[in-house]
Specification:
There is one protein chain. With 170 residues, the protein is an all-alpha fold. It is built from eight helices and no strands. It starts with 6 loop residues before the first helix and ends with a helix.
Length: 170
């Protein structure tokens, strides 16, 4: 049996040996990387905080539950547990993972709802999160058609996930 507790120290040692061989000040490079990481964090954090606030507001206000109930009445073929996933997936990866875990806990991993939620999770992206975080971090002000195209891709991914799940697993 291999003792894996040595992997990280060996990796650090290899990096130090390579830096020594190439005559690079490894500590200075490390501290500069940490400074760059902090500056990136402070650029991204306001957008991230605003997105987390909006998600918490939607969830805690009951607006998400109300929207889910409306969608359940409009399209009854889609399981009711999936609607929060459909609504939150384009907004936040963490929220959709939490909903996915809840679906697994309530309905089961191998249930129709669990399979459908898993396929939705894998076939869509967090469009609004990506636009908010990455566009603001690089200073893009005019997003042009990025939001519309991203949401259209999410609708296509979610629709196909639902269709294929109902076709092959129900």
């Amino acid at each position: 049996m291999i003792n894996t507790s040595y992997i990280l120290p060996i990796f650090v040692l290899i990096i130090c040996l390579i830096a020594l061989y190439k005559k690079i000040n490894a500590f200075h490079s490390f501290t500069e990387g940490v400074k760059d990481g902090f500056s990136l964090f402070f650029e991204i954090y306001p957008s991230l905080l605003a997105m987390m606030f909006a998600i918490a507001l939607l969830r805690e206000s009951g607006l998400m539950e109300l929207a889910s109930q409306i969608f359940i009445k409009l399209i009854p073929d889609i399981p009711s547990e999936i609607w929060p996933m459909i609504i939150f997936r384009p907004i936040s990866g963490n929220a959709s993972i939490a909903i996915l875990a809840d679906i697994f806990k309530v309905c089961g991993v191998d249930s129709l709802q669990g399979t459908m939620a898993s396929i939705i999770q894998g076939s869509t992206d967090t469009t609004i999160y990506v636009l908010t975080l990455y566009f603001s971090s690089v200073g893009i002000k005019k997003t042009k058609n990025a939001l519309g195209i991203g949401l259209l891709a999410d609708v296509a991914g979610i629709s196909m996930a639902i269709f294929l799940t109902l076709m092959f697993f129900s």
